[in-house]
Specification:
The complex is a heterodimer of chains A (276) and B (318). Chain A is an all-alpha fold. Helices cover 71% and strands 0% of the residues of chain A. Chain A has one domain (56-273): MetI-like (MetI-like fold), CATH 1.10.3720.10. The longest helix of chain A is centred in the C-terminal third of the chain and has 33 residues, at 241-273. Chain B has helices spanning 10-16, 30-62, 83-89, 92-126, 131-139, 146-156, 163-170, 185-209, 214-222, 227-238, 240-255, 259-264, 276-285, 289-315. The longest helix of chain B has 35 residues, at 92-126. Chain B is globular, with a radius of gyration of 24 Å. Chain B is mainly alpha-helical and 318 residues long. Chain B contains 14 helices and no strands. Chain B has a domain at 91-285: MetI-like fold (Orthogonal Bundle). In chain B, 68% of the residues lie in helices and 0% in strands. Classes of the chains: A mainly alpha (276), B mainly alpha (318).
Amino acid sequence: MLEKRPAWATALTYVLLSLALIAVTAPFIWMVLGSVKTDAELRQVPPTWWPDAATLDNYTQLFARMNFAQYFVNSVIVATVVTVGNLLFCSMLGYALAMLNFRFKNLVLALVLGTLMIPGVVTFIPLYVLVVNLGMADTLPGLFVPFLAAPFGVFLMRQFVQGLPADLIDAGRVDGAGELAIFGRIILPLLGPAMATLGILTFLGSWNNFLWPLVVAQNEHSYTLPVALALYTTGQNQTNYGLMLAGACVVVLPLLIVFLLFQRRFIEGIATTGIK
Amino acid sequence: MAESTLARPPVAAEGGGSRKPRVARIAPRPGESRAAWILASPFLLLFAVFTVWPVFQSLFMSFTDTRRRDLRTPFAVDFVAFENYARALSDPTFLKAAGNTAYFVVVGVPLTLAVALAAAVLLDRGITRLRAFFRLGFYTPVITSIVAVAVVWRFLLQPDSGLVNTVLGWFGITGPNWLGDPNWAMPSLIAMAVWRNFGTGMIIFLAGLQGVPYMLHEAAAIDGATGWQRFWHITFPLLRPTLLFVSVTTAIGYLQFFEEPFVMTEGGPLDSTLSLAFYTYRQFSFGNFGLASAVSYLIFVVIAAVTVLQFRLLRENT
């Protein structure tokens, strides 16, 4: 047996971790509290922690006078379509690569996995030229179409399908099911856990994506939330502090709530796939 | 997920592709190949158009004088060989951006790894209760939009009304004008990056620590090794593959940092936080597509080189 750790060491660890936890979460708490403060209070020296007189004015203004409702809807549409696309296309290809034999299979596998690490900053300029020439600049399809099929999902799905028993497929074949029916009726229903992990990661990535929507969305009607927030808080546009913090809350809080609801599955997904 | 063993991170595991997929079958079916292509084609079509094509187009553009006015006719441009690369490398602003990016990566990556590892070890060995609670709290910043947290941090770091300097004031320290001082702006961005990103590494390290056999620690303790010695001589070497994985993915992300300076400092003061990705974006907005492509390819090459280098460094001495 290892020697027992002295009680003071354990207590010290708890104190240390608690202080760290306060430091890590304080910016969020301050953001939420700040979003219901008035502009004047936010400019006060020294700053206040609890709001003097809480008000929802900032939110009312974001949604009633600025177009945040529109940006919110845009973000939801883009993230949802990208997620559904990846779930469908990646599971199809992932299954084919894991369980079926076809010519050029290894080439396809090498090509897809080889591009896993290509950074977005390398492709955004030609992608912009392409999207403009396809007539999709400044439209929602321009925001989601280029991201419907990402290599990471193929990697994840192939990995998961390889863990399923191959007997399932043989059983389907013996029963006379066609190859596509085997995928649709037998495999798809078993992909739940992998779908959940990929779905959450993809939705999150798309919701927080910034560079591409910044490049493609030129007018307010196609802004996503991060683009709107960034453009309203930099340069000459930074007017009202309360509005900025309320805007940050609108970007962060919906995902934060979803995350807290599904956190267990989510964190396990991160641990097993290793990528955020 | 039987396949995803944690001691063996996915990138390393997939690199060779030597493992044969499990295809114990009765007999190959005539419909199999057709079905495979039907399943593969939607992905491959999108992938060819929106991933493979742009990678080559980007390389092509970097050797041409493509500008915004050529947008509709991207092939009616002049070939200029390495002129864009030469122009970038002789631009003092580019060199400044390259230096800033190196600063961000060289300081930021080890710091992120150290905080992540410390948090993971404390959670794994130091406590028995509330583990999931702390883990959740530390992980939360990772899921948030960098743009949104950058807006919040800009407030926290304000010289007079900011929370950070107020707290420092309690201890009699007068904090600097963090984002307005060329010497403090970059450390501020690094601090925020560590705060936002260490949660990912922590989760992966926690998973990696499960793979360190308790027996080894017991045996070493019987031989009289202290806790500190056991960490450096047992835990650390066994975590090496995990460490490699986290360090590669963190470095790849940090080499492309963009949102932080865009929102917090707009690259200033005096270009002290201008990153390579931000420089690329600026050249792109000026309409210099050829030059911007050349810089983006340079970033790509550096990312590849840094990845290889880290594999070398961390693979040795095992």
